[in-house]
Known about the structure:
The protein is α+β, with helices and mostly antiparallel strands.
Amino acid sequence: xKVKVNLAKASKKMASGCSSDNKIEIALWVVLGVFIVAVIxxxxxxxNRFNQMNRRQENFDDYSALMENMSSSNDSGDDxxxxxxxxxxxxxxxxxxxxxxxxxxxxxxxxxxxLRYRNNQNRRVAMIxxxxxxxxxxxxxxxxxxTLRYYTNPKDDKYLxxxxxxxxxxxxxxxxxx
Length: 178
């Protein structure tokens, strides 16, 4: 027994029998099925892409741990605003917040600069965590993060705002020029 099927007539009958809600639901299921098939094909034929994504996440986790360690290390004592602003030594001050993405990006460069000036007799480089010293940050008029200011004499509270590139070399050049 042979059966002849006219696809054009069958599709018209199906289309006339389906409501618009059913058509939308069917279309959504088709899109979901295509997406699932695409993911399976990617996982089977391009497994390295998934491994690279996992490595990137691990690197980000390492970076976050590094940032937490750096923010918790306070070996030089420069983070206390009372110590920083009781000095007459010219000081570059970074006002930062540990949660700020721009601060996290800039912090490794600033740490390099801070290490260079750790034993300097003429200038110093300090960091003030504005979350830990909210009252001081408010009195200093810090409105955004990171804020970089170069105090020629911190006791006088006169400063120059630094708006240049956020690299250790550029900040050091600015300090040497002023």
